[in-house]
Write a structure and sequence with these properties.
The structure holds 2 protein chains of 2 kinds.
Chain A: E1 2-5, H1 6-20, E2 24-28, H2 42-46, E3 51-53, H3 58-70, E4 74-78, H4 84-87, H5 89-95, H6 99-102, E5 112-118, H7 133-139, E6 142-144, H8 149-161, E7 166-171, E8 178-181, E9 194-197, E10 202-206, H9 210-220, E11 227-231, E12 234-236, H10 240-250, E13 253-260, H11 265-276, E14 284-288, H12 298-304, H13 308-319
Parallel strand pairs in A: 2-3, 2-4, 4-5, 5-7, 6-7, 10-11, 10-13, 13-14
Antiparallel strand pairs in A: 1-8, 6-12, 9-11
Chain B: H1 24-46, H2 61-69, E1 76-79, H3 84-89, H4 94-101, E2 125-128, H5 136-148, E3 155-160, H6 167-178, E4 183-189, E5 192-193, E6 196-197, H7 206-212, E7 217-221, H8 225-240, E8 246-251, H9 260-265, H10 272-279, H11 283-288, H12 293-316
Parallel strand pairs in B: 1-2, 1-3, 3-4, 4-8, 7-8
Antiparallel strand pairs in B: 5-6
Classes of the chains: A alpha/beta, B alpha/beta.
Chain lengths: 320, 343
């Protein structure tokens, strides 16, 4: 039985796709050296004309990937810092995402954007600690937040093969996870969620690194309440069907995700459940506060992040 | 010349030679097509048949025509919000283009793009782009992909003087020069970024920006199609030979408003005298004067028929069905949820 780390899973998925398809290439800052681990060793294996270092010009190289995709390539772009997505929001949301519709289906833009350390890394403060996946879900760009190494592998493979732009957030707090891999790694379809632990009293939707937190809480409270842990894996498109089935059984909902509260993913899940699904009690969400900017000091950073204690409180609140 | 914003470039006494393989009448024809197309489109905005508005290209025809005439059919372009001229000069069907402006199902983009997003990939047009400078990196990426595929394709990316102050254009110029990409950076310097004169917006110059990246540049009389064609031909040869990008700054002028909304509100940021001075150097007259009068008359009549037929085609074409409003949103066929919950 082999232990696979989350970081290694992403690296292996990228290597497998570079091997399989000559139109796949990687662009980004320091990807030849592999400073973010994602591309470690790949320049040596595939050459620097497929693993390409760019100058620090995020806006230009992000749209260059769009132009290359229009001409048949499947570029993967790495952003070392999640907040860089704000800098290239025009290039992704306003250009890459809109080309298929605006051209009346003349072109597709198969670009994958990977953030191999999203959210808080603890101690990197305001401009290196954002987790803006809800923003991409909001504009309708396919958005993935894998929770486990095997899902990181399978979802990245699917993202690279997808004909649309896809953003993959690899939470910094999940990058160190290791998993016993007993079977062959396979693609995971975009848009398919997974129940990580069955339960009958309450459904906890947990995103990315918070899936581990939810599983710990479920175990801890097992004698008190039966918790179903629901991992969406893809936050857009969301697997509403699987969630409806889960709520049909439990009728109670808590969402824990690393979005800011206003217009975050938790808000969307609660709204949809209220409109369309079976609920016997008011749902709750646990997330970052409104407008959160992560402060530097560790105690302050952690005070902002959604976590264990808030989740326990929210579960108890919906069980009242 | 960049600092001469709003002033006519003095005409040279001699015409530049028409490069071999180019028909002087064909260049005139292409410019006349754009002029008539724009006049027709202005009429359709006024009548409400084009909703929203357009950014008319009238006055700048020599730039699109001179640049595109230097390209091969398999070469590529990206265009701007003021893009009708580029699309027509590169060879798109004027009827399908006009149908697009009218939001018809028969339009180039099946009514999904409109004036500012017209694209015709089969003709090498990777799209007009509504964000100033936004298309330049897309063009560079397409050039990069072409070079990797072993193609000798060249791509021209059009932008206005306003884009000279957009960071992404400068990032793109750096990368294109660094990687010797086959890109022609075509700056249509019409003296104004919307209402702001270049003198109030541009420190340094277009050519100075190119020089900073070690990129050759040429500033040409953008009212003379032969001057534009000559400069572009040299730049295309460099790009095709793998010698990298060139910046072409074409000094030109739009005779009309920034857009059709401006036409209604009648702003006065340019003097009548300045407009009149540029009108004396109408690019159609400059090239038309090089043809026998009878040839020009014949072409004018022919183009009038082409545009009348295009207008008829656009008017008689069906509107797209509202059920398909989000068709093509995802190339993979994903269907998002509607705006309201089912049931």
């Amino acid at each position: 039985m082999a232990k696979l780390s989350y970081a290694k899973a992403l690296n292996r998925a990228l290597a497998d796709e570079l091997e399989r398809d000559q139109s796949v290439c990687v662009l980004g800052e320091d990807v030849v050296a592999g400073i973010a681990q994602f591309t470690l060793g790949l320049a040596k294996r595939f050459g620097t004309d497929r693993v390409i270092d760019t100058p620090i010009s995020e806006q230009a190289f992000t749209s260059m990937a769009t132009g290359a995709a229009l001409r048949g390539m499947r570029p993967v772009i790495e952003f070392q810092i999640p907040s860089l997505l704000f800098l290239v929001f025009e290039q992704i949301a306003n250009q890459a995402h809109k080309f298929s519709l605006m051209t009346g289906g003349q072109v597709s833009v198969p670009v994958t954007y990977v953030v191999p350390s999203s959210g808080s890394r603890e101690g990197w403060a305001g401009q290196h600690s954002d987790h803006p996946y809800s923003l991409f879900a909001h504009v309708g760009v396919k958005t993935i937040v894998p929770a486990t190494p095997s899902d990181a592998y399978g979802l990245l493979v699917s993202a690279i093969r997808d004909d649309d732009p896809v953003v993959l957030f690899a939470p910094a707090l999940a990058m160190g996870l290791r998993e016993d891999v007993t079977s062959e790694l396979v693609p995971v379809p975009i848009g398919s969620a997974r129940v990580r632990r069955p339960g009958s009293d309450v459904t906890v939707v947990a995103v990315g690194h918070l899936v581990s937190v939810a599983l710990d809480v479920a175990e801890e409270l097992a004698s008190e309440v039966s918790i179903e842990v629901f991992d969406p894996r893809t936050v857009y498109p969301f697997d509403w069907e699987l969630l409806a089935g889960s709520l049909e059984r439990t009728g109670r909902l808590v969402v824990i995700d690393d979005s800011n509260r206003s217009c975050g993913l938790g808000a969307e899940v609660l709204a949809t459940a209220a409109e369309e699904m079976h609920l016997v009690a008011p749902p709750r969400r646990v997330g970052r506060p409104d407008g959160a900017v992560l402060p530097f000091a560790l105690a302050l950073d952690r005070a902002i992040q959604p976590g264990h204690d808030q989740l326990v409180a929210a579960i108890r609140a919906v069980m009242k | 010349m960049a600092e001469l914003a709003g002033q006519a470039v003095t005409a040279g006494t001699a015409s530049p030679p028409c490069p071999a393989g180019h028909d002087p009448a064909g260049l005139y024809r292409s410019m006349r097509l754009i002029r008539e197309f724009e006049e027709c489109a202005l009429g359709l905005v006024k009548s409400g048949e084009i909703v929203g508005g357009i950014h008319p290209y009238i006055g700048e025809e020599a730039v699109a025509v001179g640049v595109c005439a230097a390209l091969l059919p398999g070469d590529l372009i990206t265009s701007t919000h003021r893009g009708h001229g580029h699309v027509l000069a590169k060879g798109s069907d004027p009827a399908a283009m006009l149908a697009e402006l009218c939001g018809r199902a028969t339009g180039l983009n099946q009514g999904r793009g409109g004036s500012m997003h017209a694209a015709d990939v089969s003709a090498g047009i990777l799209g007009a782009n509504a964000i100033v400078g936004g298309a330049a990196p897309i063009a560079a990426g397409a050039a990069w992909a072409a070079r990797r595929a072993g193609s000798d394709q060249v791509i021209a990316t059009f932008f206005g003087d306003g884009a000279l102050n957009q960071g992404v254009l400068l990032e793109t110029m750096n990368l294109a020069a660094l990687w010797s990409l086959p890109v022609l950076f075509v700056c249509e310097n019409n003296g104004y970024a919307t209402t702001m004169a270049t003198s109030g917006a541009v420190a340094g110059s277009a050519s100075g920006r190119a020089a900073a990246f070690g990129m050759p540049s040429v500033t040409v009389d953008g009212m003379d199609v032969l001057a534009v064609l000559g400069a572009t031909t040299a730049a295309v040869a460099r790009a095709r030979a793998g010698q990298g990008p060139t910046l072409i700054e074409a000094m030109t002028y739009r005779y009309g408003p920034h857009h059709t909304i401006e036409q209604r509100i009648r702003l006065s940021y340019r003097s009548e005298e300045e407009i009149a001075r540029w009108r004396e150097r109408d690019p159609l007259d400059i090239q038309g004067a090089r043809l026998p009068a009878a040839t020009r008359t014949l072409i004018d009549a022919e183009i009038a028929e082409v545009i009348a037929a295009a207008r008829e085609f656009a008017r008689s074409s069906p509107e797209p069905s509202p059920e398909g409003a989000l068709e093509f949103l995802y190339a993979s066929g994903l269907k998002g949820r509607g705006g309201v919950a089912d049931g």
